[in-house]
Amino acid sequence: LSTLRILFTAMCVTIVILFMSTDQAHVSDTQVMVEFENGDFHFTFPNPKNVSEFSMTLFRGREKKEICAFHLSKERVISKSNVTYCQTQNSSSSTIFILKNLERKHIDVYTYCLEIFLPPPYIDCCLKETYLYVQDKEDCFSLGRVSWIIIGVIIFAISCVCCVVTCCLRNKNQKCESNSLEYNSEYMPMAAVNAAKKPRI
């Protein structure tokens, strides 16, 4: 009887654990989407499932300086930004942090953290780190200028090759024409000779 009681208790505990795990908040482990649109960087994060209150925060640097945050609960939705270049957008499935007008000084590691308040237990986890590299407009301009210079040099080289080929073909044609004139001058034109008439007898 004691053995059966232990087995029955273990089965009940397993059922309770399974029931609790199905009701717990689910944190999606999908990859963060970083997109570049119209000069802005979009960090898109999936919202946690089965959650009634949570916060998302975007930190910058190894010292974890908070630059943008989003808090959602049943009563209200709060978006907070500590810098001018960060904005927040939220939908039913995801939260987007938009970084605008970035310069070379904004190159850094950006970390996304999620806090789940309800339902219990409280969860605090930093899910993703992304290294963001920003290229200056001057670098883009100089890179474009170099590319145009390279294209110009290539076009000039092709033009030179075409001119050389054209000159060679023209000289070859002139030499052929002069050779044909010399060949024809060796034969002098001869007058037509009428056949002698036979005398009549």
Task: Please specify the SSE layout and strand pairing.
Elements: H1 2-23, E1 33-37, E2 40-46, E3 53-60, E4 65-72, E5 77-81, E6 86-90, E7 94-99, E8 108-118, E9 123-132, H2 137-185
Overview of the molecule:
By secondary structure, the protein is of the alpha+beta class. It folds into two domains: 109 residues, Immunoglobulins (Immunoglobulin-like, Sandwich), CATH 2.60.40.10; 47 residues. It contains two helices and nine strands.
Query: What shape does the CA trace take?
Result: rod-shaped
Reported for the largest beta sheet, the result is: 5 strands, antiparallel
Number of helices: 2
Class by SSE composition: alpha+beta
CATH topology of the largest domain: Immunoglobulin-like
Can you give the mean pLDDT?
72
Kindly, what is the distance between the CA atoms of the first and last residues, rounded to a whole number of angstroms?
Answer: 164 Å
Q: Detail the poorly predicted runs.
A: 4-29
Strand order, sheet with most strands: 5-4-3-8-9
How many runs of DSSP E, i.e. beta strands? Answer: 9
Number of domains: 2
Radius of gyration: 42 Å
> In CATH, what is the class of the largest domain?
Mainly Beta
Kindly state the percentage of residues in helix: 25-40%
Protein name: Inducible T-cell costimulator
Pfam families: V-set_2
Keywords: Cell membrane, Disulfide bond, Glycoprotein, Immunoglobulin domain, Membrane, Signal, Transmembrane, Transmembrane helix
Subcellular location: Cell membrane
